[in-house]
Amino acid sequence: MTPASHEITPRPFFEQRRLLLSALALPAAWATAPAQGKGAPLAATRSALPGALTLDKPTAYSDATSYNNFYEFGTDKSDPAERAHTLRTRPWTVMVDGECLKPRRFDLEELLKLAPMEERIYRLRCVEGWSMVIPWIGYSLSALLKQVEPTGKAKFVEFTTLADKAQMPGLRSGVLDWPYTEGLRLDEALHPLTLLSFGMYGEVLPKQNGAPLRLVVPWKYGFKSAKSLVRIRLTEKAPATSWNLSAPQEYGFFSNVNPQVDHPRWSQATERRIGEDGLFARRRPTLLFNGYADQVGQLYSGMDLKKWF
Amino acid sequence: MVLSALTHRAAKPIAHLLCALPLAWLIGAAATQGLGANPAEALIRSLGDWALRGLLLTLAITPLRVQFHQPALLRFRRLLGVWTFAYASLHLLAYAWLDMGLGFSDIARDIAKRPFILVGMLSFALLLPLAATSFNRAVRWLGGKRWQALHRLIYLIPFSVCLHFWWMRAGKNNFSDPFFYSALFALALGWRLWRRWQRQAA
Questions:
Q1: Which residues neighbour A14 within 8 Å (Cβ) at sequence distance 6 or greater?
Q2: When comparing pLDDT for A15 and A272, which is higher?
Q3: Overall domain count for chain B
Q4: pLDDT in tens, B121-170
Q5: Are B19 and B57 in contact, with CB atoms under 8 Å apart?
Q6: Nearest Cα to A216, choosing from A187, A191, A243, A240?
Q7: Does position A29 have pLDDT exceeding 50, yes or no?
Q8: Please, which residues bridge with residue A160 across strands?
Q9: Which segments cross the bilayer (chain B) (predicted)?
């Protein structure tokens, strides 16, 4: 099959990407680069996982930290950056329980040392039709799940975000039922690309991006990647998820990025890459599974993705 | 004192300048990367917001004029209406260009897919004949009575505009802004019904 003209990368971009890649080859390149924000540095090595280092140009740090959906702090994209300073990220614990042999509460310090920190550059596609490219730091969620030894009954994983009115002004609005919950099938949660993230751009996570730890599931719409996690529960049945409860006809359980399955009220065929080429940049075509089809496609073989959207 | 300010020679040019301010600010912000991470979205939404505010102000002229005994306010009604149309046109242009890349088949598909876009287009279609007959000569061509009858279309537009805004936020359950504007429109239109009822009772 001949690639469409828009799929051919022009040489200058290609060479630029090579430069970028060689920069990343330096140990903890982001951490030694000039400071991005004011966060504490978080050392990491480049991930060796297939698909974990997209060649796309990373989104500017200022864009990735000023344009966020984090409804616990308000519904405007600028609200999280303006209001999330009230979030206290220490001390912090995460309860990991449910269908497992060794349920227990993990302290954040313990989680930070649980597995080697990797840097992974993932595309992030929001269900609203915009996308970013973010260098995350963390390790595969499977490393944590293995600690609690899931039983044979465990089929799903439920993720719960902090819901504290004293720290999160957005909870006063009835936009969603709090706390925010999300879910994955166990095989999705155990997929090596599913990242438990503690940092980005060489630093610990900014509060508006889900500090101190969040999920990143790069082949699903952004809302599947719950922020500021306080509980991870292994379940036998599919957990209820916040957006699915709020509008079941618009947000399904799987929410895999799929240009062929439109949102009921808009097309998902294209996306606007944040920070790309200014105001008049054309929207770019959205990729099946956000471009991670080679890595995760087999998880959904035989499934009708229109039905299981 | 208010009366003299409203009838002053400079009042209309100043009103035009005030109406142009949001646009000037948006152009300035767009040129200096001041529109945030998603400038296209910010531009489309801000232009829509200002069209909405313009429509609300246009509809507020009569209640304010009568309640506060400021007949001179009438001079600004058509001016505000024309600026409302200008912001609505720019809102539509920004959507068609920045979101749809001026692709007419893409726009047609989007209208079919998104009822709120259809209702937005309908609002614009309702504004068109009003803007097209906003010149003094048009009043003479049509005759005062017919011109006035045509311009009663303005009372339909708040409904389609509020539905457009409401529907856009549906699914995200974020209705505080549409509710706020709908309440103000209800006030502006409700005042007219109330007055009509009072006059009939009298």
A1: none
A2: A272
A3: 1
A4: 999 999 999 999 999 999 999 999 999 999 999 999 999 999 999 999 88
A5: no
A6: A191
A7: no
A8: A181, A231
A9: 50-68, 80-98, 118-137, 149-167, 179-194
Q: Which of A151, A152, A225 is nearest to A188 (CA)?
A: A225
B37 contacts in chain A (CB < 8 Å): 62-64, 66-67, 77, 274-275
Residue A264 pLDDT class (50, 70, 90 cuts): confident
Q: What is the 3-state secondary structure (H, E, C) of A5-65?
A: HHHCCCHHHHHHHHHHHHHHHCCCHHHHCCCCCCCCECCCEECCCCCCECCCCCCCHHHHC
Identify the pLDDT of residue B140. Answer: 94
Tell me which residue in B38, B170, B171 faces A130 most closely, judged by beta carbons.
B38
DSSP H helices in chain A = 11-25, 29-32, 61-64, 79-83, 108-113, 141-148, 186-190, 242-246, 293-296
**Nearest-Cα residue of chain B relative to residue A63:** B37
User: Which domains, ranges and CATH numbers included, belong to chain A?
Assistant: 11-300 (3.90.420.10)
Q: What is the pLDDT of residues A93-129, one digit of tens each?
A: 999 999 999 999 999 999 999 999 999 999 999 999 9
Q: Does the beta-carbon distance from A278 to B39 stay under 8 Å?
A: yes
| Eight-state DSSP code of residue A220 | B
Name every chain B residue with its beta carbon within 8 A of the beta carbon of A274. 37-38
Residue B120 in tokens: 């937005």
Cβ-nearest to B174 among A75, A78, A250: A75
Task: Give A9 to chain B, closest Cα distance, Å.
Answer: 21
Cα diameter, chain B: 58
List, for chain B, all residue ranges whose pLDDT scores fall below the cut of 70: 1-3
CB contacts under 8 A, B 133-162 vs A, are none
Query: Closest to B40 (Cβ–Cβ): which among A175, A262, A279?
Result: A279
Confidence of residue A1 (pLDDT cuts 50, 70, 90): very low
Shortest alpha-carbon distance between residue B84 and chain A (Å) = 24
Residue A182's Cβ-count burial label (10 Å; 0-12, 13-18, 19+) is buried
- A283–B99 CB contact, under 8 Å: yes
β-strand pairing of A195-200 with A214-216: antiparallel
Angstrom distance (rounded) from CA A199 to CA A121: 12
For residue B94, give its domain range: 2-201
pTM: predicted TM-score of the whole model, two decimal places: 0.86
**Which structure tokens are listed for A43?**
């050392």
Which of A62, A66, A265 should one mutate to test binding to chain B, selecting the residue with the greatest count of B CBs within 10 A? Answer: A265
Q: Is the pLDDT of residue A14 over 50?
A: no
User: CA B63 to CA B198: how far, in whole Å?
Assistant: 14
